[in-house]
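Notebook p. 47: complex prediction with heme C.
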Amino acid sequence: MKNLLLSISALIFISAACMTNAQQEESSTAVGYEGWLKGKTDEKFNEVAHQLQGFSRTMWEVSYRYTELYFAGMDENWDYANYQLEHIDEAMEQGLIRRPSHEESAQTFVKVVIPAMQDAIDAKDSDAFINAFNIMTTNCNACHAMEEVAFITVKTPERRLSPVRP
Ligand code: HEC
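Predicted complex, structure tokens below:
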């Protein structure tokens, strides 16, 4: 009887040890279209993070929305201007989470320039909008200078990029 009890507890111990081992030894899997996303969980997350891209992707979006914002203001389409400003803010926020090294240079843009533009849009005031837009443009370029990409100079957009019209 004593021996039987000993063997049962030994069996329980061994199977528990095997389970912990199985949990630690995570196997590689392949998911997504034709299994393009491969590896262990961390490897998959790394690949997804890489696919989300860095700050140039953020800037691509901000740059498009900056142009849309401008023409929204010119059209006095204040709801669309508001929409674009919200998305600029969100894109910057997400970009700074991915690349926090740009956070310091972005402070004026995020904390002063965006709120000033918000006030102009809320007031539906075209003169205030043009003024806020010029300040925004100056600040885009100021940040580029701080970030050593001064060769990327933005100016008031000349052409519309989307078919959105009031
Ligand atoms: C953090 C400060 C910062 C602010 C504010 C900022 N930028 Fe940038 N911008 C950068 C950096 C850094 C790069 C280069 C990114 C890289 O090399 O990955 C860049 C790159 C760009 C590019 C090139 C993107 C590409 O790869 O094709 C454009 C266009 C651009 N910015 C437009 C703007 C506009 C328009 C504004 C203002 C509405 C703005 N940026 C505000 C830091 C900033």
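Notes: Residues 54-56, 59-60, 62-63, 66, 102, 105-106, 109, 136, 140, 143-144, 147, 149, 152, 154 surround heme C (CB under 6 Å). The chain has a mean pLDDT of 92.
Next step: compare against the earlier run before touching the bench.
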